[in-house]
């Protein structure tokens, strides 16, 4: 499946209204929760395409192996302390990126957690629900808010909110209520921001990676390489290939 990683999005003919996308080697990306799981794989795929990647980690001191795995692919990568629930981490991370490169082209809001330990909503612990909203919704919200001014200044940005199809109305109705509600809220947030930034060169979309074999997904899901591909596509996509304020899985639009 690594062969797929290097396949670039098919480029449609550009209209003069579309801002030219920066070359891959000039794009700067930030991936939250990049020390393991899908986030690490997204960092690897972006780096192997020549994108400079900041790998957000709650504990960078434990992230050496992940950082090395990305650098070994020949990419330029840096570990950055980033707990998305900590405003100070967010502020420092963005200031660091701005100071170093003066731009940020790609934000992958990947950090997330499951939080449901019981099956139904009546049994759910309110603290778990708060925990899910704190990371899956508010973490993405505040990191995105910090990044938008930088993207607006350059008239270019790609924001990918890693969501889950289980937030869709028709799916997974009785399972994981805290997770599902937090991702549904993330989806609504994605649509709201998309409207706000329409026409600014910034695309923001929600992407479901599909059930994936990670610590969160457990055994049996598909390999991270496959799941990350749809996220990487949305992170690199041109305005002619994708919309904004949409929900994708494997490059195809899915229902909210
Ligand atoms: P993992 O549990 O493997 O990894 C989660 C990552 O998020 C870790 O890097 C973790 O860091 C990080 N994280 C958690 N809380 C925070 C925080 N407060 N600040 C910064 N980072 C944080 O999960 P996956 O890789 O499977 O999941 C990645 C994303 O994909 C999530 O948003 C998830 O909801 C979504 N997803 C996953 C599916 C699956 O089947 N696996 C299906 C659908 C969606 P640390 O190591 O410090 O805990």
Automatic annotation (TrEMBL):
Q: Which UniProt keywords apply?
A: NADP, Oxidoreductase
- The answer on whether this UniProt entry bears the keyword NADP reads yes
For the keyword Oxidoreductase, the answer is: yes
Any one annotated GO CC term: membrane
Single GO term (MF): oxidoreductase activity
Q: Known InterPro entries for this protein?
A: NAD(P)-bd_dom_sf (IPR036291), SDR_fam (IPR002347)
Reading the lineage from the top rank, the first entry is Bacteria
Q: Which family does this protein fall into?
A: Belongs to the short-chain dehydrogenases/reductases (SDR) family.
PANTHER family reported in the protein's UniProt record: (+)-NEOMENTHOL DEHYDROGENASE, SHORT-CHAIN DEHYDROGENASE_REDUCTASE
Q: What is this protein called?
A: SDR family NAD(P)-dependent oxidoreductase
Record organism: Luteibacter pinisoli
